[in-house]
Inverse folding.
């Protein structure tokens, strides 16, 4: 594992491999840069080598523009590499310039497939923008343009002078205002993915091809100096250097352990054992809680059963009482019924006797009247 401070030191002290201007013959492609100053002022241009030179303005035509014109001479031997690059990168949003290059390439390629092509790309900086900022860094052309004279213009932010003069804002535990970029260039396609542990993170480096750069590991560190100006440190390491000095590894596990996979695995096993012990303890606690809950529920069930039994006993006693009361009521009702029946029967007998006596009296009266009538008749 590599610390940020150590990485800064490696990049800052490595002079071999600082990315050079692409004016050299790289894979057969040649580039020539022409500056066309059509503003009202003379301007200072600063390249990556920190060479500062004045560009006079041209009186005509006055377009209020400063043009950085790159002219590429592309031999047929580089056509296939460019076509592969177009397929891989031209559709990505961050490669707008490459799409322009692609259009210019294919416009001539259809007519001149077997002869060198001359491609022209213009980068235009307006006079209004220069007036507003006075000094500009044009990232996609890697140059500085300034209204100031050469003696006042600051160093190119990617120049070696800017690198060794850079001031880092850091504290005991953190590094502030830093941006890191790490690229793995493999034009021979012989390297697999690599991993690096930096700032408590594991970064995944995927090999990529770049016909304008040699194979290697490119590290860039961007920060701000005491005046708030960007300062960039860059360095290129061979793969062997990067594995030794930066700590590049073939697996994420190796990057995390700094190459000591055995210790990392032992730590991992120890951590797993610790987590297992914690889980076992939690399991025992849960089992104890479940046991206590079961006992509580058992006691509550016993209490409910006893209460239900008491309620059942009360209900049965109440039922017995109600049954006895019902029997008493039935007995009283039967006694009343029998009394009433006896009363009605006695009354019936009495009415019958009265009727017989009335018949007897009536008969006696009739007989008496008959006798009286006979007597009176004889007299």
């Amino acid at each position: 594992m590599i610390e940020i401070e150590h990485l800064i030191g490696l990049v800052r002290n490595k002079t071999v491999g600082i990315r050079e201007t692409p004016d050299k013959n790289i894979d057969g492609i040649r580039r020539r840069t022409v500056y066309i100053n059509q503003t009202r002022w003379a301007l200072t241009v600063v390249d990556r080598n920190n060479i500062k030179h004045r560009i006079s303005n041209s009186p005509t035509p006055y377009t209020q523009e400063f043009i950085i014109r790159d002219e590429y001479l592309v031999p047929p031997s580089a056509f296939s590499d460019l076509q592969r690059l177009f397929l891989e990168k031209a559709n990505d949003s961050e490669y707008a310039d490459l799409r322009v290059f692609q259009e210019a390439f294919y416009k001539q390629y259809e007519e001149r497939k077997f002869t060198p092509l001359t491609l022209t790309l213009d980068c235009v900086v307006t006079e209004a923008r220069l007036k507003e900022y006075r000094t500009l860094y044009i990232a996609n052309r890697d140059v500085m343009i300034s209204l100031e004279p050469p003696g006042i213009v600051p160093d190119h932010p990617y120049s070696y002078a800017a690198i060794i003069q850079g001031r880092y804002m850091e504290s005991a535990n953190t590094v502030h205002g830093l941006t890191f970029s790490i690229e793995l260039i493999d034009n021979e396609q012989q390297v697999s993915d690599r991993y690096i542990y930096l700032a408590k993170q594991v970064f995944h480096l995927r090999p990529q091809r770049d016909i304008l750069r040699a194979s290697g590991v490119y590290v860039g560190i961007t920060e701000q100096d005491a005046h708030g100006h960007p300062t960039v440190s860059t360095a290129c390491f061979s793969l062997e250097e990067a594995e030794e000095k930066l700590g590049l590894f073939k697996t994420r596990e190796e990057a995390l352990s700094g190459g000591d996979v055995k210790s990392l695995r032992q730590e991992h096993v120890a951590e797993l054992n610790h987590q297992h012990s914690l889980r076992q303890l939690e399991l025992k606690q849960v089992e104890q809680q479940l046991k206590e809950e079961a006992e509580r529920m058992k006691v509550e069930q016993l209490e409910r059963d006893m209460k239900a039994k008491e309620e059942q006993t009360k209900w049965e006693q109440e039922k017995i009482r109600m049954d006895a009361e019902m029997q008493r009521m039935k007995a009283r009702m039967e006694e009343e019924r029998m009394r009433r029946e006896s009363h009605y029967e006695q009354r019936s007998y009495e009415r019958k006797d009265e009727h017989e006596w009335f018949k007897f009296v009536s008969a006696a009266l009739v007989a008496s009247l008959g006798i009286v009538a006979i007597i009176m008749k004889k007299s």
